[in-house]
Fold:
Amino acid sequence: MKKIYILSAMMLTLVSVSCKKSFIDLDPQDSLSPNTFFKNESQMRQALAAAYAPLHDLAVNDYFTSEMRSDNTHYQPYPSNVGTAYVQRESISDWLDDPTNAYTNAVYFHCYNGISRSNIVLDHIDNATLSPAAKNDIEGQAKFLRAWNYFKLVRLFGAVPLYLKEVSKADDAFLARATVDQVYTQIITDAKDAIIELTVPKFPQSGQATKGSATMLLAEVYMTQKKYIDAEQLLNSLTTMGYALNANYADAFLTTNKNSKESIFEIQYLQGTDGGSQPSTFIYQFLPRTKNTGIITTFGATVIATDNSGTGGWNTPSPDLISAYEPNDKRLDASIGIAEGTYNTSDLFAVTANKSIINYTPAAGQLGVPYIKKYLHPHSIVNNTDDNWPIYRYSDALLLLAESENEQGNAGQALTNLNVVRVRAGLAVCTESSQAKLRDVIMHERRVELAFENHRWNDLVRTGNAIKVMTTYAIMAKRTYKDLPSNAFSININRLLFPIPQSEREINPQLTQNPGYF
Structure:
């Protein structure tokens, strides 16, 4: 089966041209047109592949909003460079971003790009010659993608415009914000349809959305709405679809183990230099900012050394997260490494050793900088890696199931699902029976199990813990990070949502701004 990361050149060159001459209105004969495209399964699957493509761009921006906004990660200070690109990325972590921030705006735009392309698929599918099975599959995937993108938008930006049709004329391009309830209603409708239309996964998976992907999405929606009974039913249905945990935590992220039985949905990448490749690069963004990464990015006889001083230093694990791991938790060493070295006068890190985080003590005269290790795997070309980005894993489903059961007062069953995850991590089973205390245990478990997978911020907000947790974290951050602006970490409820991009409001006067932003 074709990989979904292959972009359709034809989809990206579709044009619609009108002719002012009254006697003729022909589409150009040397380019593709909506009037001649979208006619068969091959063309519809090319259109569907284009709807997946914005996920690649989203993945390299979303960690700013969904990890660095939280207590999980921060950034390597770079006082020698106060350019706009650096300041805007740092400001998200520091709770100082504004409506002109290019990186929060990018998440907004990439989501709508995916929605727009999903709408194109859905608007044209009835006119294509397709078997019933092919139509269900293509339509189900497009609805999953539209629902997932709207779910991302509504959680990060609140009420947003609800586009459900291809925009073919200017009058359709400018909508007011729908209510949050209206957006959720559409997400649920799409996700339910996708569950019906898509089939259960076959392992190893292709990387495309399945019935399991749509089920997990809808379950997380219901958890966000605190509809615990509905969520529990969906999550229990996942246990019958063949999903299971890999033997070792680190196995879930191996490039040789993509789309495994633990994967419910992940963004597909492929290393290489040919036209069909779509390599990932995020590990180089997550390493300390250095002139030479070689000590960390050399694999056996393959020496991969590069200067990432212009791209690295982001999403650095916070001391608060590192201290959250229990003793003997195997996930700590699988998730986080230590780059040892010193900073030069240009605020760049000279790496002298790559160390394990377990019982780490810096060598004399050296500093240890933590970095995300779970996406560091052998590759042969700089900035050209084979790592996928996980969106939903089965352990996520088990922990949501435990949470839904605990919220219904069923601590015994909640512990059963919680402990499946804990035992794999090498930890003792939990026996906590208090609902309130078990709630905290499950949240802690989600934090360390899903660290660096862009879940932490959403978990804090949906459970109502964001202000409390981040207020406490802000005190620690101000003691730990010496180069913070004086007004950093001014925690307030308005900033539980990101601002609507100013550029959108300038061209669409119907858009209002979220409270607290100007």
